[in-house]
Amino acid sequence: MTIEDIQNEIIDEFSMFEDWEERYQYMIDLGKDLPLIDDQYKTDSNIIKGCQSKVWVHAEMNDDKIQFTADSDAIITKGIIAILIRVFSNQHPKDIIDADMDFIEKIGLKEHLSPTRANGLVSMIKQLKMYAIAYQTQLK
Amino acid sequence: MFNVETIRKDFPILSRKVNGKPLVYFDNAATSQTPQQVIDVIVDYYSNYNANIHRGVHTLSQEATDKYEQARQKIQAHFNAKFIHEIIFTSGTTHSINLVANGFSSILKKDDEIIVSALEHHSNIVPWQMLCERTGAILKVIPMNLEGELILSEYDKLLSKNTKLVFVNHVSNALGTINPIKTIIEKAHHVGAAVLIDGAQACPHIIPDVQALDADFYVASAHKMCGPTGVGMLYGKEEWLNKLPPYQGGGEMIAEVTFEKTTYADLPHKFEAGTPNICGGIAFGAAIDYMNAIGFETIAAYEHELLAYATEKLLEIDGLKIYGTSKQKASVISFNLEGIHPYDVGTILDKMGIAVRTGHHCTQPIMDYFKIPGTVRASFAFYNTKEEIDSLVTAVKKANMMLA
Question: Among B341, B358, B374, whose Cβ lies nearest the Cβ of A75?
Fold first, then answer.
């Protein structure tokens, strides 16, 4: 599936929720189900700065596609990471770099996009795209 | 007679909604809300007599100068400073601390010792660390116990003839502990050290009498006590303020300027370079008037009632732990739910219209001591109600259920 397909699928899922509570409960559940990052990658150098909660991200490239794993000590943040990983993992670096992030607003998580929110969603997206840029350079 | 419903009418912001729910504002330790009486003073200033002060001969400048200096008098009276020139307007507590720390650069020598408490806000740690880097002075720390109280017997051991300065907050922003500052000051004076008290968190609840306390420096911010942001004060004993060099150079702080030599203005202007926050200073005075009209004893008694009620109700929640359990506490409750990150709790509470602070509260050493990433902090003001605390308790229970 392309990044856009996945985003549309997520928008569809979120459109079923009637209020913030259902939306957040879903994110919390996603957070709980997020496969854990391998402990060896939970290092200080993999921490994303700018978050009130800790966020670790690790990236690898196989067959020209990037796989992301991540973790956080806060469950809602983990839910947000789960959504981002679903969108970005197993994609070509170039598609990740070019990806539009409008879907976050469409699923009602716009408030988390504020750079002042201190939950680091913005930093997280930036970090994922930075990995993509780094791997893209390798491909060339 | 204190009537919270009447008081609440003074605060327009309290009637707004957040995420479709009535706002419950429990982040008062970060900043307090502003009553209409203070807002009116701000509007009046810009509508009627906005002008630069101290230099103009015209009427507006004179009016603005009078009001600004009247505000200084109000602050002097409120804190019971001996002289009006012992009150310096600053941009806030952080500015006040930096002003003093900078001044001590020319006083401290290598291996002099300065003492901080384990309960301090970063703003009362970092400027002193910078001072140590500049001077070679040594920073020592008064430890705390599990209740969040300073261990005074350890403080005694740190004091010596090498101690030059002690700086402690009056009330801890993260835990709410009211520190025994009178004793701390006495002990420091016994070895000839000066004391700076960070009163940012105390001033919304307590009137500090700087002469009775015998504080050498006392600092506070207007925005924690119903005033605007960007203005605060430094009280310093005259002899100390005379000893400290100016912090910033500029207009207003000079007596005479030539390219060969500049002489500085007398107190308080020596420390007030540039055009100050004139409107803010005047509004600070109005905020003090507002709070005094209600009465600090009344405020403290009511807030204590809220604190006791909230503590009791919150402790009924499964897995909730309160950090900071001193008997001497201001109306601040720092807590966590077992196994749940404070950020998650804060996010859910916000969805329910409740404003709390989450995180380390600029007190990472305290969080490290308790081995936690942060806490949820609810801090109450005299315009809060028990019904709002009930809403908080319901919301925390919901967060507990959703997140567990």
Answer: B341
